[in-house]
Amino acid sequence: MDQHTHSNPPLNSMVCFSVYAAGLAFNRLYRGLLERFNLTYPQFLVLVALQQRGPLNVGQLGEALFLETNTLTPLLQRMQKLGFITRQRSAKDERVVHIALSEKGAKLNIELGCVPPQVLDATHLPMTEISALTQKLNTLAEALREHTQPNQRTL
């Protein structure tokens, strides 16, 4: 039997591989665009989330970025050392840590305004297609998250 006759589809026809490959390409592109700011892509996302949503606690920020607290905490500690954010424990509950943009982080966000247009230009797609693709990917991601959520049963 020929090794190519099995039932697995070619990689480039698998949506999971296409999303994975696009993600890798985006990461490479962002790495190049963000290196002059000495930022990683996850740090960039934290700055954008805080700019758009205002101060958040670590749990809320994790939900916004789909990151676990144990992944987010060291990232936030590095960003605080760089002076981009402030971290402050809640007076009501010490387990809760509030995250906000520092003045330096807010200024950096202004400088970072050039990055998204450069990314859009690199796609060579019209804005209508980018918008439609974004909407479809958001729908796909939500469906996959719902499918992988543990069943929430009430007793």
Structural features, described:
With about 160 residues, the protein is mostly helical. Helix content is about 60%, strand content about 10%. The protein is built from seven helices and three strands, in the order H-H-E-H-H-E-E-H-H-H. Strands 1-3-2 form a three-stranded antiparallel β-sheet. The protein is globular and about 60 Å long. The N and C termini lie far apart (about 55 Å).
Estimated structural class: mainly alpha
- Strand segment tally: 3
Radius of gyration, in Å, reads 19 Å
Shape: globular
Strand order of the largest sheet: 1-3-2
State the share of residues found in helices, binned by percent: 55-70%
Query: Segments where pLDDT lies below 50 for 5+ residues?
Result: none
SS summary, helix count: 7
As a percent range, the share of strand residues is: 5-15%
Question: What's the N-to-C terminus distance?
Answer: 53 Å
Main beta-sheet strand count, sense and barrel state: 3 strands, antiparallel
The ordered H/E elements are HHEHHEEHHH
Average pLDDT score: 90
Main traits of this protein?
single chain, 155 residues, mainly alpha, three-stranded antiparallel β-sheet, 7 helices, 61% helix
